[in-house]
Write a structure and sequence with these properties.
By secondary structure, the chain is of the alpha+beta class. It folds into 5 domains: 62 residues, no CATH class; 173 residues, Rossmann fold, CATH 3.40.50; 89 residues, Translation factors (Elongation Factor Tu (Ef-tu), domain 3, Beta Barrel); 99 residues, Translation initiation factor IF- 2, domain 3 (Rossmann fold, 3-Layer(aba) Sandwich); 100 residues, Translation factors (Elongation Factor Tu (Ef-tu), domain 3). It has 21 helices and 33 strands. The strands form 8 sheets. The protein has an 8-stranded antiparallel β-sheet, with no helix packed on it. Strands 5-6-4-7-8-9 form a 6-stranded mixed β-sheet, sandwiched between helices.
Length: 727
């Protein structure tokens, strides 16, 4: 009886399993196509279902299971077809790849990526298939898997077409070339009379307007001589900060006039100017200025220049030397004639047809006219309506102005001209090229911007990889130190190390992390900014105070500058720019410092003062007196024995209010205050030079004969930066 019940129970279990398989198959709509066991019976379907004893249990179950195996095998086959083949060569990687994307690129499963991540500091509990991996982790996983990686970015770079604008080919047909004015650069040391010389030549008062006797930015002028000849002059600053501007002036010039003061002789910027002329391969004319002064010695100047391979004609060389007085206008026509004669020997000609080519001498921003550039045209003829490209900006020329601010219709080769119509101000020294249309100009600018971005990205990646490697090494060292600890012990050690930072406010953390001076730099022209930024590049005291240039640009101080200074807790430095009353009031209201200067070395001095203010104060010890220990003994006070030193003061005095230190064998073994100071049996406040005394310390410390007692005072002194800008 029991055995029969057991058999029926087994049949019911098998029947239930078969029904579940049938239900699953019917839901996939595969029952009619693949499942036909009923056709082998003579009974109709209704009677078959109503009479369970007619069901063939074994056949039914085996058929259902075989059908399930068939479907499972089919699904596995589909998955295998979808699986990517294993990569044996290079794996193409990119930034911001997820775990799943990397596994697909490598032809591995996700578990393989997880196994490789065990070698990193990543917490695997927080890693999901869609988690983004850092680039160094991606490279490490690929290398651990025995594969090589390549960047997908390089492929995109190769596919992009170069759409840059280039110069035309040089044409030497005599029929096309026409004479042009010589471009003359005046170089020399600070205050040797360069600007006075130009002022005398072009009859203007530029010299009287300049601050500190220093030309603060480059200017280009066309001088018309009484003989009808034209000479284009470039005036470059003599200050040490403007070395790049002097070098740029010689790159576009034909002749260099070297101005040397007769009473000063050869100076530092004189030597530098000679080097610029030699590097550019430009001939020299020597102008010995200030010859009207009693102490003038032109012959000494010529002899000093021999040491720098500048040999004048009267000493057997080929360099013309003219003694002048720029202030009184003496021999200026002789100098101009020497310049014209040398220009005729050089046979200066240019092609005035075709697309325009030139060089940006200076750029600035005008409130009414927008970005303006002073340029020298080298090929072609510039007219209104021309489309120009310079650097990463372009212009459709709206107006052209001469050196006196008058509008002109065209500018031929060798003529300086001010161009209006730029979208943004180009950098001084940029090459100007004319293109066919505005669309073509936009293509050129887009390409140059793209190239710059790629170069910057490449450099940034190198820096990032170096930093990541450095951090990785630091992390591995820390892990090695904590390797013998359990995870609970490691957590406790890290908590203790960072405990003092957890209770700081975010602002206090930032101040403690780094001491930074944020700068907003504004200049009148691009060359001035260039000079200031070159000086700031020489800053090498990051361990004292970090220097962060938040923004730099041309033009007067604006509300945007105030907002930036407020956001970064910075200081605004302006060179030859202005800040109107409303801007100054806004700055005062927000507590922003605006420092405006017209002389560059004063700006740098002010910057150094600002750096000094950011440095923490230092404690300086000032010695007040010195004494020697001649004998030692002890005094009993209550149950304690207190060591006492018998001393003689041999320098200065000992003041009980001050601090003391005990020196033994040139080592400081104690610092603190005295507990007692006596002369004979009397307590005293001060012991002077030559007097004997007995003293005890606030610490129970034994004395030795020969010890030195130093009385000193601590003063808080403001530190000064060790940065030396070079002038």
């Amino acid at each position: 009886m029991n055995r029969g019940l057991l058999l029926r129970f087994e049949n019911l279990v098998q029947l239930r399993g078969a029904c579940q398989q049938l239900r699953a198959l019917s839901s996939r709509k595969l029952c009619g196509a693949q499942w036909k066991p009923v056709q082998s019976f003579a009974h109709p379907m209704g009677s078959f279902l109503l009479h369970p004893h007619l069901w063939p249990k074994d056949r039914l179950l085996s058929a259902a299971l075989s059908q399930c195996r068939y479907l499972a095998t089919k699904e596995e086959t589909k998955k295998k077809k979808k699986k990517i083949q294993l990569m044996r060569g290079e794996v193409e990687i990119r930034q911001m790849m997820t775990v799943e994307e990397l596994a697909r690129a490598m032809g591995k499963d996700i578990d393989h990526i997880y196994e490789a991540l065990l070698y990193t500091d990543i917490n695997l509990d927080s890693v999901e298939p869609d988690s983004i991996l850092h680039e160094d982790h991606i490279k490490m996983i690929v290398q651990k898997s025995g594969m090589k990686y390549k960047s997908a970015r390089l492929k995109e770079e190769k596919e992009r077409k170069n759409t840059d604008a280039v110069k035309r080919q040089v044409v030497n047909y005599p029929a096309v070339l026409t004479p042009r004015p010589p471009v003359v650069t005046i170089l020399g040391h600070v205050d040797h009379g360069k600007t006075t010389l130009l002022d005398s030549l072009r009859k203007s008062q530029v010299a009287a307007m300049e601050a500190g006797g220093i030309t603060q930015h480059i200017g280009a002028f066309l001088v018309r001589l009484p003989s009808g000849e034209k000479i284009t002059f470039l005036d470059t600053p003599g200050h040490a900060a403007f070395s790049a501007m002097r070098a740029r002036g010689t790159n576009v010039t034909d002749i260099v006039i070297l101005v040397v003061a007769a009473e000063d002789g050869v100076m530092q910027q004189t030597i530098e100017s000679i080097e610029h002329a030699k590097n550019a391969g430009v001939p020299l004319i020597l102008a010995i200025n200030k010859c009207d002064k009693p102490e003038a010695d032109p012959e000494r100047v010529k002899k000093e220049l021999l040491a720098h391979d500048v040999v004048c004609e009267d000493l057997g060389g080929d360099v013309q030397a003219v003694n002048i007085s720029a202030l009184k206008g003496e021999n200026l026509m002789v100098l101009a004639e020497a310049t014209v004669a040398l220009a005729e020997m050089l046979e200066l000609k240019a092609d005035a047809t075709g697309l325009v080519e030139g060089t940006v001498i200076e750029s600035r921003k005008d409130r009414g006219k927008g970005p303006l550039t002073t340029a020298i045209i080298q090929r072609g003829t510039l007219r209104k309506g021309c489309v120009l490209v310079a650097g990463k900006t372009w212009a459709k020329v709206r107006f052209l102005f001469d050196e006196n601010g008058r509008a002109v219709d065209a500018a031929s080769p060798g003529i300086p001209v001010e161009i209006m119509g730029w979208k943004e101000a180009p950098s001084a020294g940029d090459e100007i090229l004319e293109v066919e249309s505005e669309q073509r100009a936009q293509e050129v600018v887009a390409w140059r911007t793209y190239v710059e971005q790629q170069e910057k990205l490449k450099k940034d990646l190198e820096v990032i990889e170096a930093k990541q490697k450095e951090h990785r090494l630091e992390y591995e060292k820390k892990q090695q130190k904590l390797a013998h600890l359990t995870w609970r012990q490691r957590k406790a050690v890290l908590y203790k190390a960072n405990k003092h930072r957890m209770f700081l406010r975010p602002k206090e953390r930032t101040e403690k992390d780094e001491n930074t001076l944020a700068l907003i730099v504004k200049g009148d022209v691009d060359g001035s900014l260039e000079a200031i930024l070159n000086i700031l590049d020489s800053y090498d005291c990051e361990d004292e105070c970090k220097l962060d240039i938040v923004y730099f640009g041309m033009g007067d101080v604006s509300e945007n500058d105030i907002s930036l200074a407020e956001a970064f807790n910075g200081v605004i430095f302006g060179f030859s720019v202005k800040a109107n009353d409303s801007i100054k009031k806004l700055a005062d209201k927000k507590g922003i410092k605006i420092k405006l200067h017209n002389i560059i070395y004063k700006l740098i001095e002010d910057l150094k003062d600002e750096l000094n203010c950011r440095l923490p104060s230092a404690m300086v010890e000032t010695t007040i007196g010195e004494a020697s220990v001649l004998d030692t003994f002890s005094v009993t006070v209550g149950k304690n024995k207190i060591p006492v030193a018998g001393c003689r003061v041999h320098k200065g005095l000992l003041d009980r209010k001050m601090k003391f230190k005990l020196i033994r064998n040139r080592d400081v073994i104690w610092k603190g205050c005295l507990s007692s100071l006596k002369h004979h049996k009397d307590d005293v406040q001060v012991i002077k030079t030559g007097m004997d005394c007995g003293l005890s310390l606030d610490k129970n410390l034994e004395f030795n004969i020969g010890d030195e007692i130093i009385c000193y005072e601590e003063k808080e002194v403001q530190q000064t930066t060790s940065w030396d800008p070079g002038f």
